## 1
Amino acid sequence: MEYKNLLVLTDFSEDAEHAVRTSVEFAKRYEASITLLHVIHDSTNLSFILSDDEYRSVDSKMEKHVERAFKALFEKVQELNSVPCKTKIRRGTPYINCLYELEKGDYDIVFAGSHGESRVKHVLMGSTSEKVLRNSPVDVFVTKR
């Protein structure tokens, strides 16, 4: 099995950081490239509450926050700079957008942390990694801290 294109899901939690670190070691071993994916939760329902200008402002602030979080991740996980790596931002439901990205891209494997930013949310609706694991067209590597 050859792994050349790795997709790594991140919500910038500690568990996601562990998945990133694991994927870097994997990328080094297989001489692969990494795509880090963050999905901004869908906020279109805010458009009913906010004016168009306010909505665009919130949307812009969320994107800037994610860009800063990616920068901080690269600073924290310095090894990311030793492998080919790019970032992607999508909007919507995280697991659905991960599956769309898997279908659209040429990925061989996807990495995810076992828990994300909200462990309580897992009890209510299941984890993103679990839903990706069940529906992914490629191998899934779920890490545990």
Note: The CA atoms of residues 13 and 48 lie 30 Å apart.
## 2
Amino acid sequence: MQPPAGSQVSHVPAQRAPSEQLPPAPVPPQTQPPPRRMRTMLTVVAGVLALLCLGGLATGLVLYHRASAPDRSAPDVVVDNYLRAFLVDRNDARADLFTCEGGSQLEAMRSLRADLLAREQELDVTILVSWGSLEIKGEGDTAAVVTVIRRSATVDGIQQSLTDTWQFDVRKQDDWRVCGGVEIN
């Protein structure tokens, strides 16, 4: 069919190239699947690692607290720990963890340690302190713990030792504490 006269339709016939002459159809670019699977997997792995780290940290803190907390569970245990901290390690801060507030009734123990330090310096020796079994007397929230404290040293090649019997007064507040100590005969 012919367009009407005076129309603005082009009179150029449609030309089509034979299919052999057409350039190859462009290959659409391969689209990568969205990285949702990879992102989800990384999120899950990161979450699991974070939980493991937090669990390990919590476990470490609990174990540290148990290992570093002073044992004041029984009268004999608290006296043993006090003697070790005060006479063997000579660590006042650690010894204070085992004593009652104030600790004014522990002057005899302070005198004993001062005497030990003076004799070590005077004789230029190290005095070793040990104690025997700890005997608990009393029940309830107060008790007495009796033990023999031994001080020994080698002076001029001769082994020497002194022993004294001591009684420690312990009181249960939140836990057991050493409130006093005196030498007895």
Note: The two ends are 139 Å apart (CA to CA).
## 3
Amino acid sequence: MAQAKNHSRRHFMGGLAAAAGIGALAVAGQSKAGGMMEPSKNKVVYQLNKSDAAYILDILHSAATVLQHFNNDADIVIDCFGPGIWLLVKTEKNHHHYEKFIMEQVQSLSMYGVVFNACEQTLKTVKIDKASLIPEAKPVFSGAVDLIILQQKGYAYISW
């Protein structure tokens, strides 16, 4: 009788293992075929609309903290418009002349995948062309519209 219980238990456990293996293969197959999506990344969009150096450093530091917390598994966009656009304008066209440290932080965050969006509407208002943007800048039609679109895509919105 004890032998029958052990046989039933082994048969049950073997069946579970086989079912789990088949399930894992099915999930892997669907994932590769596009049937199932991988878990979404952490997504954040920051509104940067002031030219104050301390304000900018706070946002850059926050973005770096998010990257660190999620082990670089985060999609981060910093949307620059209004007076914040000056962060993305090359030095020769920029009357704000940010510290070298700030620009190094922008470059560093960009290397980790942080996207810096530059509002084209603000560029028109301040009469700056896209050629005057730093290489890390990505022009978008409108900073406000970009914030809406990114939130619709599931980005958490952070305003300072």
Note: DSSP finds five helices and five strands in the chain.
